[in-house]
From TrEMBL:
Enzyme Commission code: 3.6.1.7
A Gene Ontology molecular function term of the record: acylphosphatase activity
Keyword Ligase: no
Residue span(s) of domain Acylphosphatase-like: 5-92
The family this protein is said to belong to: Belongs to the acylphosphatase family.
Coiled-coil region(s): none
Protein's recorded name: acylphosphatase
Amino acid sequence: MGSKRVYFLAHGRVQGVFYRKFTANRAHELNLTGWVRNRSDEKVEGEAQGEETSVAQLMKDLKKGPTHALVSKLDVEDRELVDGESEFEVRRG
């Protein structure tokens, strides 16, 4: 399997429900790099990079989200790989 990078945008009740922390924890468990942050329009966005199967698993998990989240839609777009990225970080919007 090869590496892949995606951009994701989560819609619904995804702020104030530990969605970013959930995303970062799952990304670390899956050995992915990238970032996640809240947006001013109450959505959460980010990018994730790693093995294709791990990225696919993260996207599956993000469609469900943590216990108190209600994800109405998850947009996903392929992106170019980023060289030299070493971790997954929670960014401040």
